[in-house]
Design brief:
Distance between the termini: 60 Å
Helix content: 25-40%
Order of helices and strands: EHEEEHEHEHEHEEHHEEHEEEEH
Number of strands: 15
Structural class: alpha/beta
CATH superfamily of the largest domain: Formyl transferase, N-terminal domain
Strand content: 25-35%
Largest sheet: 7 strands, mixed
CATH architecture of the largest domain: 3-Layer(aba) Sandwich
CATH topology of the largest domain: Rossmann fold
Strand order of the largest sheet: 5-2-1-6-7-8-9
Length: 315
């Protein structure tokens, strides 16, 4: 089976490497985003998928936009049987989709139709889901709306962060994609339409998604801490300074919780707690004030000089 592989981040690399190692598949080209400035020095770096393709000596194509005539001619000349696409980062126009007889096969990091969009892992954790998975699907011109092929399901562990879950799902992707391509090649897979009425969205993360509302219950704040790691994280303000926070839901004895306002800080047995919505509490484990390094909550307390009634999120 002649393939083009489209992808950009490290999440896609295990599937690329597996397909490149299977004799029944021939990767004719790897399409990935152009090299971008990254890091503090803003030095131009290749994507993780490009680095993996270079290591295997695969042909690489990096269009700024796939909607151009040049990109169309590239895909038409390669004439793949199928295109595998994983977190590529661009919407594919219908005329490109029509070029591959077996379709463009996407590995999406959710159990569709839930969490369509660019950040399904982050939003599944942030919304408190306890299960998720991978879905292979034949893409159409919509946003993750095409017919489904196979899926793989897994638990989301209570303390699991987005990078940890992403690593597990990335490792499960290659086998699911191989099974999908084999089924398509043998004609044994029947695509299943999505129930669009059950769809939920997982849009690209924005910086403001990480802002904590202390009226939320502690469990919701904790889920967002896990889901939005490492960026945008979960942040608030303290004495006019931006603070990123890490913590866990906790319980306090009744005498310690009396008359607490949302965001109010309490120190109990040397630990730092914050009052949250619905009479819940978050125990803070680490703090990173703007322009400083991450420190433990106890280190923060030693320098913060808390006064009675001090709150996170106060103007």
């Amino acid at each position: 089976m002649r393939l083009v592989f489209c992808g950009t981040p490290s999440f896609a690399v295990p599937t690329l490497e597996r397909l490149a190692s299977e004799p029944e598949f021939q990767i004719e080209a790897v399409v990935t985003q152009p090299d971008r400035p990254r890091g503090r020095g803003l030095e131009t770096e290749p994507s993780p998928v490009k680095r993996a393709a270079l290591a295997r000596g695969l042909r690489i194509y990096q269009p700024a936009k796939v909607r151009t005539e040049e990109a169309f001619e590239f895909f038409r000349a390669v004439a793949p049987d199928a295109v595998v696409i994983i977190a590529f980062g661009q919407i594919i126009p219908q005329r490109l989709i029509d070029l591959a007889p077996l379709g463009w096969i996407n590995l999406h990091a959710s159990l569709l139709p839930k969490y369509r969009g660019a950040a399904p892992i982050a939003w599944a954790i942030a919304q408190g889901e306890t299960r998720t998975g991978l879905t292979t699907m034949r893409i159409d011109a919509g946003m993750d709306t095409g017919p489904m092929l196979l899926d793989w399901q897994t638990e989301i562990f209570p303390d699991e962060s987005a990078p940890e879950l992403s690593a597990r799902m990335s490792a499960a992707g290659p086998e699911l994609m191989v099974r999908t391509l084999r089924g398509l090649g043998q004609g044994t897979l029947i695509p299943r339409p999505q129930d669009h009425a059950q769809a939920t969205l997982a849009p690209l993360l924005k910086r403001e998604d990480g802002k904590i509302d202390w009226l939320w219950p502690a469990a919701k704040i904790y889920n967002r801490m896990r889901g939005f790691a490492p960026w945008p994280g979960a942040y608030t303000t303290f004495h006019g300074s931006l603070c990123h926070l890490w913590g866990l839901p906790a319980e306090l004895p009744a005498p310690e919780t009396a008359a607490a306002e949302s965001g109010e800080l309490r120190v109990v047995s040397g630990d730092l707690y914050v009052a949250c919505g619905e009479a819940t509490w978050l125990r803070i484990e680490a703090v990173q004030r703007e322009g400083r390094k991450r420190i433990s909550a106890r280190e923060f307390l030693s320098g913060a000089r808390l006064a009675p009634g001090d709150r996170f999120g106060a103007p």
